[in-house]
Specification:
Rossmann fold, five-stranded parallel beta sheet, globular
Length: about 425
């Protein structure tokens, strides 16, 4: 492993934290750090989603960083926020500077608890990445907001998605679970906050998501579903609130094998004998797509460079159709052990060194330059994507989304091969 990243793949933990709090209704993500940190995050996500992003900062500078223990800048930021809007929740999270400084954000939150409901999370950007930042915030919401319950409702389901799942993917998973007569809640829920709907006006707070009161009452959920290894610990942590609940974990919901496993476990839990006809129909379509795309993707060598959970999901789905995969992930993850292809922690320098021996690259917008230089096919996935619109409406999960993913990549390769041989 190299001692440094050159042209890195990874995004920071505070960015993942920002997205997590945007999945809570009327929440104000508050980044405890310098003004530039929040500005960069706001610009990146605004360009990615093509929607306004609500975020505030404590605007720590070189003077306050030395003389302030954190309480003053946090209380001032919240005072300024609440003069203009009334958030149901303030999501307070740290950056590298304030973590190095050792600010006591827990103490600051306790001092302000009578004035404003706050969830705090430690998310320094000198460790982890996008996935861990999201996961740490979800863990904080579970431990700090959810009230323990003595009973459960078997048909009440809590879905905990990983950060890579788009708003429409969260919605599709919820809709499929509702077909089994479940009452489904997602934490966080980006499906109606960053899904690209036309709002009345640009709001200073998150425009949708799961309500704070709803989160507080999730303790009686009978079934906890986690999607992605980065959030597996969140599901395990929930069991401390209610040991009677059942936790089902899935590393991926993309591809035939992963989807079969998902529906088999849901059927076993719910007591249904078989899924609805519409689900069975989409499975048959995916089987046909696997056959149709095999002739192109079966002879393709592709590099996937993305966040660990997303890279794993795409690699598994493409290997089912015969694609040869080399995966580079942004940071170490427990899901590395589950890959069935070559995988290593790397950056775009590593990707560039391997690209000549491959036909295509699947990665974020920053891979576009490499694809042009080496004349390789490019499928845009991950954060950021400045090239395309409708990112929040793209779905690659379950049988239906897996069909869309394989068809899209196959068509990209067909088009690329035609141009290459012209």
């Amino acid at each position: 492993m190299k001692p440094l990243h050159v042209n890195p793949l990874k995004l920071s933990q505070p960015m993942g934290a920002t997205l997590a709090f945007l999945g809570v209704k009327n929440c104000m993500p508050l980044m405890h750090g310098a003004q530039g940190c929040a500005s960069f995050t706001k610009v990146l996500f605004t360009r990615h989603f093509n929607d306004p992003i609500a975020i505030q900062t404590t605007a720590v500078n070189d003077i306050t960083a030395v003389i302030d223990g954190g309480e003053y800048s946090i209380s001032e930021a919240i005072r300024n926020i609440t003069q203009k809007v009334t958030p149901d929740l303030v999501g307070l999270f740290t950056t590298g500077m304030t973590e190095t400084k050792g600010d006591d954000i827990k103490g600051a939150s306790l001092l302000l608890k009578d004035k404003q409901k706050i969830v705090y999370a430690h998310t320094p950007d000198f460790e982890g990445g996008l996935e861990s930042g999201w996961s740490l915030c979800v863990q904080s919401m579970i431990t700090q907001l959810i009230t323990p319950k003595e009973r459960i409702y078997k048909d009440k389901v809590l879905l905990i998605p990983n950060v890579n799942l788009s708003p429409i993917e969260v919605e599709k998973i919820k809709e499929n679970l509702e077909l089994f007569d479940f009452d489904v809640y997602a934490l966080p829920d980006l499906s109606d906050s960053l899904d690209g709907h036309l709002g009345v006006k640009q709001g200073a707070l998150s425009s949708g998501g799961i309500g704070v009161e709803t989160i507080e009452n999730l303790g009686d959920a009978g079934l906890i579903i986690t999607v992605g290894r980065s959030v597996k610990k969140c599901g395990e942590l929930f069991l401390d609130k209610n040991t009677q609940s059942t936790h089902l974990h899935f590393d991926s919901l993309c591809g035939l094998e992963a989807c079969d496993d998902f529906y088999a476990k849901i059927l076993a839990y719910s007591g249904h004998k078989k899924p609805l006809a519409s689900i069975q129909r989409w499975r048959k379509r995916l089987q046909d797509i696997l056959l149709d795309t095999h002739f192109v993707l079966g002879k393709t060598k592709a590099i996937i460079a993305d966040e660990p959970d997303n890279a794993y999901a795409m690699a598994k789905a493409l290997q089912e159709v015969g694609t040869t995969i080399t995966a580079y992930i942004a940071q170490r993850s427990e899901v590395m052990e589950a890959f069935t292809c070559n995988v290593c922690v790397g950056d775009f320098e590593d990707v560039e060194a391997e690209l000549l021996s491959h036909d295509a690259i699947i990665s974020n917008y920053h891979a576009e330059r490499l694809s042009h230089i080496y004349h390789k096919a490019l499928l845009l996935r991950g954060f950021p994507n400045y090239e395309q619109i409708g990112i929040g409406l793209r779905h690659n999960v379950l049988y239906e989304g897996s069909c869309h993913f394989l068809v899209e990549f196959s068509n990209v390769m067909i088009h690329h091969n035609e141009i290459s041989h012209a």
